[in-house]
Amino acid sequence: MVHVERAAQQGTWICCVPCYWLRRSKAVHKALLTFAMLLVTSLLVTSPVLFLITTLPEGEQPRECVPVDEACIRERDGPEGLCDSKACEEASKQMVAFMKKGVDPCKDFYQFACGGIRDQQPYRPSSSFNMLQARVDDRLHKLLGNRTGHMVGVFEKLGQFYNGCLEFKEKPVNFTPVYELLRELGGYLPPKSIAPADITPLVSRLLRVNGAPLFDFFVDVDLYDRSRSSVFLDLPTKHQEDAFFAENPEERLRWAKAYSMMEKQRKRAVHEESRAYTMIKNKMEEQRSRRIQKIVDGLLPKTMDPKDRASETDLLLQFCLSLSKIYPKHKDLYNWVDVDQRVYVPFNMSYLQESFGYIRWGTLLNATLGAATADLYNHSRNRERPAYGYDDQLVYVYVTAPRYFRSLGKLLNRFSRRIIHNGLLLLYATDTLHDIVNVTGSKDWELSCFKLTKDVFSEIVGALYVQQYTPQYLENLANKVGGLFERVKETVAERILVKSWLDEETRTQALLKLNSLRGRFHVWPGFHNESLLAREMAEVEIDPADFFHTVLKRFRQVRTVDDKVLRRNVTEKRRHPYSVSAYYESSTNTIGIPLAMMIAWSWSWDAGPAYAAHATLGSVIGHEILHAFDLHRRRLPLDPDMNVDQWLWITPESWKRLEARIECVARLYARSFWRKVQFYGNDVAVQFDWNVTRNENVADIGALQISYKTWHTLTNGKDRSLPGLEGLRPSQLFFISAAQTYCSNMTAEAYILSVELDYHTPQPERVNGIMMNSQAFADAFRCPIGTKMNPPNKCTTW
To answer: Does the CA dihedral 654-658-660-661 come out positive or negative?
Structure first.
């Protein structure tokens, strides 16, 4: 959802009476909606995939099946039997290892399906989403270390950069290059010195070396015109500590005592998990304050008077911590943005300058971006250039969370320009440069090098990952996932047609939106384009004797997006193929599944059981499809006619009926899930904010039901078994597979952070909440009515 903020404008309307009548007539409107619903339904029901399923030829002769025709393959090879391939054997071992014997699945299905995970190695290869990324990263680690012999040709410099980082650990820690760079960027301004009145030049210089203490920006595909790029203003780079708690036992004892004191002093009205989370935040802020103070000690002149030094340190710390405090809270972001993607509010250049006058935005963009890209925003260069871009559309800069940028303006007015200047340099050194030179501060320097390499060579690392597979294999895989996507869409369409809370207008709008929904499963072809990759790497310079300046040069290259295909239009490149994170993109009504996730269950199509892909990828696809119908996906009227309906796809009447179903989920979760965790020797009661998780909970419950129905329609409940699991029915294996994608082994601290900072319900509540609302699950495990996993009153939306 994107709404536009712009200055008030007046215009003239020319009306035609017949057009006005056609637009306002309820009878005409209803007739058009009915026609559209019938048309869309017919298109969905008669789709090619469904046609293949329902019109299979008969006969005993060997059948020729196309790779994406799963129904044909199942009929040809037989729907049942034992899968004894190596992939199936490994999948069986993993499934058994995660399960816990002796647990009643009707009392606690998460413990039944995932209770054995605590006995596993923390990064054991797994199909679990929580561990799949670790497996992908381990593979990339081996590639970068040239253990597979891939670091040649266009990847040679990438390997040199990674190895140079590893070797940098052997050198003594030296902060001198950091302070030299800060002097180049403007240097420390002592008291009584004259500071520049405009911070724009400094902000631009910092952005060009990958510094974003106030805000960041990137270039991506325009949300309205996919043929060109636009600038997106983003929230600032926020430093995150790798470890929240010190390993020093004395440090842990100190924080345990502090928590006990907080426990006694706080009123009981405050939720206990808030106290625990406050404790974690205080620890993180203390660590960051120590880091800032360490940088300040080297930044201030050694000859400075001790009193002036202490005063200056306090002022700089106050600026840095104040800036951290206006960073949006997680729950505030939820209210400002859509789940799983930010709302980018378009500002034209004049309104951008009017709204946030503390930066000269035209100057900033021209100075920071490449010439051709900057020209799109620089009307002063060409006086004859019209105020409109291509196709008479205004050129927009898309702003993330404008409320933050307004708060930023108020904060900057509270500090002198000199303190702001010094504070920005300090934050850049603290959040960007410190981890590069302070090799002794990292518990795992090899992991730090891996993260840095991915950060500054993300597209090349993506190409390295993709080129493990042939284009033909990737094409076949994308087509198979595309076939699954179409089948899941058909199931969603069937649900839309029968759900009673939808009125006819909402039903029609939902079907229209579903029909236009697209999936991105094909890997960007540029990852196999050797000449394109070679051009990108040609300008990379690796200095084995000076790793710090090698990184600095790469920072500058990454920020130069002009004419660099690999560094712009991130959305068009299907995000990073090695990330384990599916997404729904509202601006294009598209879902995307990265390559790493598709490969994880590709064995399901190689004579494996169909439930493996349907319970995992099918559930993910269903989940992302349902985000197209998120509960808060409303729009502001872009049309000057203020009578335009505010609802994007749902009428107020349907919304009221839907709200009752949402409340059902919230009440059921509130009754069923209440948990205590051990935190510094205290039992901390964890309570959930069901308003924040409601979109994800509704999508979770609906996705499982939709993926199960899709699988059952294809197989009629008959599927292949895995070695050692022949005693379990295919329907039971479906639900075990679905649950095990969320298996996790987290500490109490990680659990508290998950509750506070994640839009999803954490495990094990997420798994049990999904299953207890599924009648098919209760039937598969024959759970008596009234048991925890089979409550008499279930909640369902889709």
So the answer is: positive
Q: Which residues contact 725 (CB under 8 A, 6 or more apart)?
A: 92, 95, 96, 733
Tokens of 788: 């925890």
> pLDDT tens-digit profile of 758-776?
778 887 889 999 999 999 9
Taking only the tens place, the pLDDT of each residue in 567-588 is 444 444 447 899 998 999 887 8
First vs last C-alpha separation in the chain? 22
Full-model pTM: 0.81
CA proximity to 186, closest of 206, 166, 171, 212: 206
Q: Which residues contact 351 (CB under 8 A, 6 or more apart)?
A: 5, 6, 7
Q: How many Cβ atoms from other residues are within 10 Å of residue 606's Cβ?
A: 10
Query: Which of 582, 585, 652, 586 is CA-nearest to residue 623?
Result: 582
Count Cα atoms within 13 angstroms, Cβ side, for 270.
Answer: 13
User: Does residue 429 carry a pLDDT above 50?
Assistant: yes
pLDDT of residue 81: 86
Task: Yes or no: say if 96 and 725 are a contact pair by the CB < 8 Å rule.
Answer: yes
Residue 122 makes CB contacts below 8 A (sequence gap 6+) with 745
Please name the residues in contact with 693: beta carbons below 8 A apart, sequence gap of 6 or more: 759, 760, 761
Please, are residues 637 and 646 in contact by the beta-carbon 8 Å criterion? yes
**CB neighbourhood size of 242 (10 A):** 12
Query: Which domains does the chain possess?
Result: 101-139+468-522+571-635+656-797 (3.40.390.10), 195-258+272-374+393-440 (no CATH)
Beta bridge partners of 218: 232
Task: Show the tokens assigned to 259.
Answer: 């928590």
**3-state secondary structure string across 371-385:** HHHHHCCCHHHCCCC
CA angle centred on 516, ends 512 and 517, rounded to 5°: 115
Q: Is 682 helix (H, G, I), strand (E, B) or coil?
A: strand
Backbone φ/ψ region at 563: left (φ over 0), alpha (ψ -120 to 50), beta: left
- Share above pLDDT 70 across residues of the chain, in percent, rounded to a whole number: 74
pLDDT tens for 217-259 read 888 888 777 777 888 999 987 654 433 333 343 444 443 444 4
Q: Encoding tokens for residue 21?
A: 């009548």
Q: How far is CA 451 from CA 7, 162, 446, 561, 724, in A?
A: 42, 10, 9, 21, 39
Q: For residue 764, say if its preceding peptide bond is cis, omega within 30 degrees of 0.
A: yes
pLDDT in tens, 686-743: 766 767 788 888 999 999 999 999 999 999 999 999 999 999 999 999 999 999 999 8
- Is the four-CA dihedral 524, 530, 536, 537 of positive or negative sign? positive
d(CA 592, CA 746): 28
Ranges 70-74, 278-282, 331-335, 495-499, most confident: 495-499
671, burial (CB in 10 Å: exposed 0-12, middle 13-18, buried 19+)? exposed
Residues 245, 249, 253: CA angle, nearest 5 degrees: 80
Q: Tokens representing 66? A: 């196309």
Give how far Cα 722 sits from Cα of 90, 101, 289, 370, Å.
9, 18, 54, 56
CA angle 309, 310, 314 (to 5 degrees): 115
Closest among 178, 181, 233, 531 to 369, alpha carbons compared:
233
C-alpha distances out from residue 437 to 188, 237, 515, 606, 684, Å: 20, 18, 52, 48, 39
CB distance 722 to 91 below 8 Å: yes
- What is the enclosing helix (H) or strand (E) of 366? helix 361-368
DSSP string, 729-788: -HHHHHHHHHHHTT-----HHHHHHHHHH-SSPPTTHHHHHHHTT-HHHHHHHTPPTTST
More confident residue, 270 or 193: 193
Phi, psi of 338 (to 5 degrees): -75, 150
Farthest-apart Cα atoms in the chain, separation = 95
